[in-house]
Amino acid sequence: MKIVFLLFTLTVMSHVSAGELIDKTFEVKSLEHLLINNLRGDVEVIGWNKNEVKIQGELDDSAQELKIKNKGHKLYIKVKMKGDSHSGDGSDLKIFMPSTTSLWFKGVDTSFAFNNLKSGIEGRTINGDVIIHKAQQKINVSTVSGDISINESNGVLNIESVTGTVDFSGKYSKAYAKSMSGEIFAKIDNIEKLKTENVSGKTFIEGKLQEHAYIKLTSVSGDIKYKTVGELNAACKLESQFGGKIQNKITKDLPEKSMMQQQKLNFVSGDGSGKLIINTVTGSVAIEE
What's this model's pTM, rounded to 2 decimal places? Predict the structure, then answer.
C-alpha cells in the first residue's frame, strides 16, 4: 500500500480546457526532463534559476485540454486536440523551466523558441520555425518547411530543415547541418568537426578551425563558400564535378580543369594539420580569408 501511494503522489495531473487562459506554476525539486507536445501554435521556453515550471498562454478553441503530468523527474505538457480537428489559431504557450533541465519537444504546425537552456534540446516540428538562443550541450532539432536559427550556443549540434534556411553560430565541438533547398549559414569558432549537406541551396561557412579539425561541405547544385578567420591550417581538397568553378583566394594554387568541365584543387594551407573537403556536383566553390 505504501508503494502504491507513493507512485500516486508522484504523478500529478492537471487539466486546462479549450479557450482558457493559462497561468500555472509547479514546484519541481528534481526535474531532469521536460517534454512538450503542441500540435499547432507557438511555444516559447525560457530557462531560469528556480525549481519551478510556470506555464502561461491560451489554448486553441479546437483543443480539448492541456494535460500536465508531473512524475517527479519528468514533466509532460501536452495540448490534446478534439479528434482530427485542423481548425483554429493554435495554442500559444510561454513556459519557464529550470535552466539545467533537458528539453524534448514535438509539433506539427508549431514554431518553437528556446532561451537559456543548459542541458540539451531535442525535438522536431513539421511546419514551423525553431529559434534557439544560449543553449548548451546536445542540440538535435529538425523541421520540414520552417527555418532554424541558433546563436550564442555551444556543445554538439545536429540540425536539419528540408526547405527552410539553417543559420547557426557559437562554439561547437561538433556540428552537422542539412538542408534540401534552403540555405545554410554558419559562424563557427574553433570547431573540431563540421559536416554540411545541401542539395540546391547555397552554403556559407565562416570561422576559425581548431587544430586537426575535419570539415566536409557538400552540395548537389548549390554553391559553397568558406571564409576563414585567421590562418587556415588544413589540407584542402576542393571539387566541382560538372560545370562549376573553383575560386581560391587563400593561396596561389589554381584548380585543374578536365574535358568534362570538372575542376579540382588540392593544396596545403599553413601547417596542414586539419582537413577541409568541399565537394559539389554542379555548383561553384569559393574559399577566402
Answer: 0.91
